[in-house]
Amino acid sequence: MTLLTVRIGPLSFTATFESERAPRTTAAFQARLPLEGQLVQARWSGEAGWVPLADYDLGVACENATSYPAPGQVLWHPPGLSEAELLVPYGSTCFSSRVGQLAGNHFLTIVDERGGLAEVGRRLLREGAQSICFELTE
Fold first, then answer.
1. What is the pTM of this model?
2. Which pLDDT does position 122 carry in this prediction?
3. Burial of residue 71 (number of CB atoms within 10 Å: 0-12, 13-18, 19+)
4. How deeply is 61 buried, as exposed, middle or buried, from its count of CB atoms within 10 A (0-12, 13-18, 19+)?
């Protein structure tokens, strides 16, 4: 099992790939690590942050897609209907954009045994954008 470290602001999480359910998305994302960006509060999706990626393309279409991810279930959405993005849910989420409901590939799960994702949500709402970095755990 491949483990990742996901750093959001000052917080650090372990994450696992969903390799059996989303093998193409997992392989494409893993090949691009480390990946850094800004996590901002999602405007339409509820309790989630998103990493806007403009026209960045992993070259992967629909695979293990959902509109209702659980907290920690990171989704990849390719460019097209909406811009490319990573969605990082920290609570109740229905993945949406200004064009309506979206579905994204659940390819990565953040392990949150201590409730740290709730703190991510608090920081996004009170402090604004947070840096985010995905990297393989050594």
1. 0.95
2. 97
3. buried
4. exposed
